[in-house]
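Hi everyone,

Forwarding the result from last night's run.
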Amino acid sequence: MRFASPAACASRLALAIALAAIPAAAVAADATADPTTLDAVQVRAAGIGSLKAERARTPGHVAVIDAEDFRERTVTHMADALRYVPGVWTESGTGGDAIFISSRGSNLDATGYDSNGIKLFQDGLPVTTADGNNHNRFLDPAAARYAVVALGANALTYGASTLGGAIDFISPTARNGVPDEIAFTAGSHGLVAGRTAVGGVSGGIDGRITLEGKRRDGYREHGRQERRGAHANLGWQVSEGFGLRFFAAHVDNDEELAGPLTRAQFDADPYQAQPSAITGNFQLNVRSSRLAAKGAWDIDGRSRLEFGVSWEDQRLYHPIVDKVMVDFDGPGPLQPVEVFSLLREADQRTWGGMVRYSIRLGDHDVLAGANLADTREKGGNFRNDGGRRNGRTALTDKRSDSVEAFVVDRWRFAPDWTLVYGAQGVLTGRDVRSTDVASGARVNARADYTSFNPRLGVVRALTPSSELFASASRLYEAPTTFELEDDVRGSGVLDAMHGTVIEMGLRGGTAAQMDAAHWHWDVSLYYARIRDEILSIDDPSAPGTSLSANIDRTLHAGLEALAGGSFPFGGGAHRIEPLVSVAYNAFFFDGDAVYGDNRLPAAPRYAVRGEAMYRHAGGFFAGPTLDLVGPRYADFGNGYRVGSYRLLGLRAGVDRGRWTVFGEVRNLLDEDCVGVLTVRDRAGIDDALLQAGEPRSAYVGVRVRF
């Protein structure tokens, strides 16, 4: 294979659209285009109501998050923002932006650092690289107005070809109800964070700019972080039915990494750094700049076209393995020799694009679209001398391209019944070249991956505010360049992961009223059989690197539930508002020749997160928070078990419309717990695998709106 040229990418796009458009053509041929009988809801603006309407037509679990909820608590990274999304397990190893993320059992191996398995979007435009990795950075949730989390195959309407689904962060604009504001947060472990945003509307032009900064010492030794960023968008309403929006962002993030600890080190002091993380000065420093443009055209009363393009440049500086010294002659006269160390440096550029066309034809609501991405990364590996380059050891050149085309029809074939059917076409390529500087030896892993992924589901409205859903879908995810680079066969090529998932659930709520109690709930059960799942183990001969291979069969199943309510008393002046998120995970090998039916590591068996807020009509709120996290394994052999833990917290504040102040205490009882762990094949008691979760911490924040 040769890396795809722009012309080849265009031909791939055309072919993928043609493959995925077959069901749409059938719908268009049979549907009656009578605008007087339309009763489907079409998403025409990124408001919370339209996002929930889109969720209601999806036969599976989709979470819609209003970022206004973040203003009442401490949200400094993505794990904080996704706290109440069941099925998504996110934790930070030091409290910084470098997080571990897994959705429905994705990313459960030693290459957790590539954070594959879930595709990130910003305003509908792809942010994740063309090969599916999120290694360098995550989006800042505080810079979002809304977030949509579509788990697993429910990300079909985003075109995402991943096991775990997609997350779309929707930017605040001067037109979507976000005022000018100044926000400030400070607290434990040296945290100081500030944000200011201003914007305005003048006729058909609107604009908004946000400046933000964060500094923290971290709750672990060698966990300092400094981040500075600017985000801006400019909208132009060219005509009544046509608008353009332009986006620009720059983020400069420097983050120290504390590294994992052995069990003995963790028991002695869970907040110390791994000694080699200090001597090797482990860091994850990323400079990223992004430009994007998006257009929306309401063609007529029943059809709409959206399109966009984005470009992002990321510069990575990443010392990650300290010197591994070997004394070959024992106590003899020769000095120990460095046999391995690692500092990665790379310049990565990604072009992305998307197109979405929606049309209502009688009882049919058809959405077709495509994502296009092209990523080029050039860089190299160096020996690491205390965080400084100490001679290049390898040259790397990674190239990947991706086209994901999809079509889905939501057909209201009977009162209260909606049939949802569609398909996705995927064409993606990888070209990974690595040259050893000392020997001149070259390794080149190249492959193309194609797939056609159908989906069939149904939504049954039980009441005006509740519905039952069920679906069956094909899952598919090609390997990342990191996984190809670490293929256990050297220059071999990994197969793509694929499988089938079935899902059913119930969601809804009672009508919200000021003087009456109301509930809302969302419950999903899913069961997936995966073939050729790519799992990686730490390479014992080169710490910090991995060996990847396809596993014949695995099972991913689980229960995801979110429930909340509001209960007034005292004439409506007081309310109690509980909220609980529950996930039960069953991720297993399926009769594997080596691992049998062992559990997959890294993800806890269950995770329960909740709160119970008291709210007064005058704006005061207060209440406890709770975390119950089940046990998990740190190895495929299931010989290294990490126990469960329970955390209590408390938060309170006052929201008076124009201003909000809050205080939050986390881990009130100061329990020691493991947040993130490193996965091995068969782990030993002396292996360094454990990174502590946050100790007792207190934060205060203020937000002023103009």
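Residues 1-45 have pLDDT under 50 and may be disordered.

Cheers,
N.
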